[in-house]
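Let us practice reading a record.
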Amino acid sequence: MAEVLTTLSILVGLGVFFATILAIAYKKLRVEEDPRIDQVEEMLPNANCGACGEPGCRAFAEKVVDKTVNVGKCTVASPEGIDLIASFLGIEASKETKRVARLLCAGGKNEAHHLLEYKGGMSTCRGEAVVDGGPKACFWGCLGLGDCAEICDFDAIDMNDDGLPVVDPEKCTACNDCVEVCPKNLFELMPVTQKLIVQCKSLLEGDLAESKCSVACTACARCVADSAPGVISIQSNLAVVNYELNNLTSPAATRRCPTDSIVWLEGEAQFAPEEEIGLPTGRVETLVDLKNTYYQ
């Protein structure tokens, strides 16, 4: 019995000893955390999407309180929510340029040729892509099975009748999920101020590119000639926009494109439905610029 009591006494003594060390270490080494972090985290949407560049809303809240990141970088919170956090912290929210996901392909079911139809349950873009790049004649084209729409937590992507994903700029938070899931690397996050977009990634040249997709870039270089120097260049048979010169871009670059592979976005939406322009009765008019110009 004495041996049992001795053993228990030793164990209790060791427990008290180590507990005392831990208590002292906690008191000496603990880092005081600003209580405002919890409050800011509660004010955030808690989507943990990573669009701000941080791994989650908690990490973002810590940097906002520490003033190393501006609260305006949260693209999910409403303007009112951003202003509320800024007012709480006594800071000014920055005006960030909105970014949205852009699809660099316009070759849907009606434009791009298909070589074959896969059967056997591979109903994802990633599933089809592993089999010789997919069923499209254009190796670089959108496969149209909606992996991007499936992964979007904000319901910002819908598939249109042409089999292309359409991004809703109002819902898009630039979280980067669609960029990562696309096996063809067709999505890119762009500021909405970038209006000139090449909707093609084919590296084939001229007639060969167009034979596989009617809206392929043929590297004809008309857009290069019609733009300010340095704005567009031809690289690996593809027109590439230099967005460092974005202030020099204009719709003029698109007007002689033979395949409409390069476009100018009038609004924020890509693949927006074409507006029907009614012609007045009683006279004949020729529509030249679709929306802005006509001759009587």
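A brief commentary: The beta strands are 99-103, 157-159, 165-167, 187-191, 196-198, 232-235, 238-241, 262-264, 286-287, 294-295.
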